[in-house]
TrEMBL record:
PANTHER family linked to this entry: NADPH--CYTOCHROME P450 REDUCTASE (PTHR19384:SF17), NITRIC OXIDE SYNTHASE-RELATED (PTHR19384)
One GO term describing the cellular component: cytosol
Upper taxonomic lineage: Bacteria, Pseudomonadati, Bacteroidota, Flavobacteriia, Flavobacteriales
Protein name: NADPH--hemoprotein reductase
Key words, A-Z: Flavoprotein, Membrane, Transmembrane, Transmembrane helix
Amino acid sequence: MLTHFWRYSHLFLAVFSSIFLLIASVTGIILSTEPVAEHLNSPSDKLAADTINLAQLVPHLKEEYIEVFSLSVDREKAVRIDVIGFEENKDGEFYIHPSTLEKLADIPPKNELYTWVTTLHRSLFLHNTGRILMGITIFLLFLMAASGIALVIKRTNGLRHIFTWIKKQSNAQYYHTLLGRLTFIPIAIMSLSGTILFLNTQFETSLNPEIEYTALQKETINPASFPIFQETILSEVIKLEFPFSEDEEDYYHLELLEQKLKIHQFTGEVVSEQNTTWIQNLTALSMTLHTGKGQWVWSIVLGLISINLLYFMYSGTKITWKRLSSKTRNKVGPEVAEFIILVGSENGSTRKFANILHNALLKSGKSVFTTDMNYYQVFPKAKHLIIMTSTYGDGEAPFKARNFLSKVNELKQLNTLETHVIGFGSMIYPKFCQFAIDVYEMLNQNKEFILKALPTLIDGRSYISFGLSIEEWKKRHSIDLELPNEDQKRPAILSTFKVEQKQLVDDGYVLTFTLELSPQGNINFQSGDLLAVAPPGDDLARYYSIGKTEGGNILLSIKKHDLGECSSYLLAQEVGDDLSAYVKENKSFHLPKKGDVLMIANGTGIAPFLGMTSMYSKQKKTFFLGGRNPLSFKLYHKIIQQNKSTDLFNTLHFALSKEKDNNRYVQDLVNENKEEVVHLLQNKGSIMICGSIKMRDGVLEELKNILEEEKMEPLEKFIEKGRILMDCY
Ligand SMILES: Cc1cc2nc3c(=O)[nH]c(=O)nc-3n(C[C@H](O)[C@H](O)[C@H](O)COP(=O)(O)O)c2cc1C
């Protein structure tokens, strides 16, 4: 509920203030350059401001000029005077060196652009109405920052974890959160100081009373001996106005940072004093914090924050669009639908998968109803229930699925439901797809639900895994259904590949075969990319990891599945045949350019590695290969031997799982070569894993134990940093 509150407050505030915030940000960027320009234009020789006092300067000035009207020290600590001089070029207002009184520079005229932009920034040229609008906007910016940070705290499970790493789901989501955390404090300072400045324009601030002192001294003394002048160093002064005439009633008016004083021009006595109020001090501080005037480094920070605000507007719009565009349009209600899809999604990606299934079921004429898991209810006509849910926090339910388990206990369905659970999560979290597992376990104990298969757990939103899970589900229940190609929005352009070589081997357990395909045309790819193939008449593409041969061909290694339409289709290809398919870049499984690499594969997972062996020849590559028996490697024998003799496989280890005397799995190789693995990970090396999910889980378990034993960074960190790369199926 709380997450909901913060999310919608954040969104509402953003929408409400968007136009004004856009103007404020763009003008803010321009205005942030003003203090920098002032700093650059200000005379550089102004160091004496901190060491010289008024007693040293005032008599000196009086001697040097015919008439002195005022002396002021600007935010850059440069000293200006307004005088009538003996020479023409020493007349009027200009900068001086405080110790030599030498003229340093003329005062540049005020830049019209800055004046114009300042008015737009402050009041939109609408006087007080504009000031109120911009004032509200800046306060809303503070509320947005606060609600945004509350959302992050909620999602990271508390303030203590606020800086924990967040997984990159999409660029917009990732950078919105990352920059939000980094810039919260400067945004809060900028927005609160802006709000204070606005309030100051709306309410008259009363001044502290002026305290008058009775003059005691009658004797005339030289300004050089005035105690107040001796005590006041230049950098504390804002302005000193000189007496206009020799009339005793004409005083020096001295404006300091926190005081205004009137000083008797002959005796040097302070005749009245007015202290600034705390409101005035706060306003002055807010002025510096909001404008960066006199603090050019801070003004650069303010400029960057304003640029950042533009990015927040862009990324926030993108996130909201993604969330809204993934809403499902139901054609029938829950009371009549035969298929029910229940979704547990926080950021919309799981819902997208649910929509794909929803639309595919609709297309094949089924009555389907999709809703959030929290809206679980009695579905009187339902026969099939599919639950698709992500996991959040530390293995918990996404917000819109939190009430599901309790509702299942409260409600009783009229029919038993054939149920399948699909979990979406990320392997970098210790509790991978935990909520989907919890749902599965609970429903499995409830007689209202029939669960014929274990839940499918999908890592990194893999469409391939989703497609395979739905394939199996539809076969189990004989449902007629076609999922669209993954790239529905951007239809893939199919390329032609000629079959150059084909080899097959049956190791007594499975039939495996390799195909070498030559691209007919200019196609860019590298080992680790994927070749998408769909059998004729089938929209669902299956992906195969590519090995790139030295001759630039594609090497595929495929296991023949008993009911696999695509593997049967590929097996039917003969040398000389043309095959239509397309290459999909798979950056997350490209060979790292730096550091040594340990490649771990079982079965057909060897294909991409065979292509990688000849890349970056200075890199040490170690290879752990798992198969059932020696026949499992027969297909690759030639390539392995070739590479072995040229030293490309620096080290090659085999594990045979069906050997009578010495049966081992690849994960056993990891354990046996523990020292090498540790050395690799400690020395910027990477591990690449390709093959079955079961093998991957075994290897990861082994690696996790080793890292714990060695007190190294946790496994998740290595995966997060891209030092452990996986392509498993
Ligand atoms: C803060 C946070 C916590 C997460 N915790 C887990 C977790 O414990 N287990 C898991 O498998 N995935 C976890 N994930 C990954 C999400 O479940 C995964 O990215 C999923 O695809 C998001 O789906 P959605 O966009 O539908 O919400 C977490 C993601 C985030 C941002």
